[in-house]
Amino acid sequence: MKIAAYGDLVQQRIQDNYCPFCEEPVTNYLDQNDTAYVMSARAPYKSDHVLVCSKSHHGSMTQLSTQELVDIRSLITKRNQILYDKHGELVIFVREGSVWGSTGKTVWHLHRHIVPHLTIHCGGTQADSDARVFMNDEQY
Ligand SMILES: [Zn+2]
Fold first, then answer.
1. pLDDT digits (tens, 9 = 90+) for 56-72
2. Within a domain: residue 115?
3. Which of 54, 70, 77, 132 has the greatest CB tally within 10 Å of its CB?
4. Distance 41 CA to ligand 1 centre (A)
5. Which CATH number do you get for residue 83?
6. Domain count within the chain
7. Does any domain span residue 1?
8. Are the CB atoms for 46 and 57 separated by under 8 Å?
9. How far is the CA of 87 from the centre of ligand 1 (A)?
């Protein structure tokens, strides 16, 4: 079976109105509770990159119930401990906004990434990140 390039796959899924996180087989869950689950990223940035997803189809944190937020937090905490013990360095993030927008979001269904050893560079490079302006009290 041919493995599709991720960008092509995302574009096809948008055209088909297909949500991969609503269709993920339960047998692929690494962990779950009443309203959320953890899965390995299918297009990982790094080894052991996982996603924490709500079971309901929501695109923004503002749409999540209190119980969903509690359940997601619980799974993030558990998975964070497992991955931190293994890797010692993690980045946890969520993208809000549109698919193909400025954040790089490719699936509308809200999900948190937990990625070992990921470096976030402002502007795309370490040099750009190091060149950021640190505001003094007057500017701030
Ligand atoms: Zn969905």
1. 999 999 999 999 999 99
2. yes
3. 54
4. 15
5. 3.30.428.10
6. 1
7. no
8. no
9. 30
Distance 37 CA to ligand 1 centre (A): 12
The alpha carbon of 138 and the centre of ligand 1 are apart by a number of angstroms equal to: 45
- Whole-number Å distance, alpha carbon 107 to ligand 1 midpoint, is 8
Q: How far is the CA of 54 from the centre of ligand 1 (A)?
A: 8
- For the entire predicted model, the pTM comes to 0.88
Cα of 109 from ligand 1 centre, angstroms: 5
Q: Worst-scoring range by mean pLDDT, 19-23, 89-93, 102-106?
A: 102-106
Residues sharing a CB contact under 8 Å with residue 37, sequence separation 6 or more, in sequence order:
24, 26, 29, 30, 31, 52, 53, 55, 75
Domain span at 88:
6-130
Distance, CA of 14 to CA of 107 (rounded, Å): 9
36 C-alpha to ligand 1 centroid (Å): 12
- Rounded to the nearest whole angstrom, what is the distance from the C-alpha of residue 135 to the centroid of ligand 1? 40
Total H helices, total E strands in the chain? 4, 5
DSSP helix/strand/coil, 9: helix
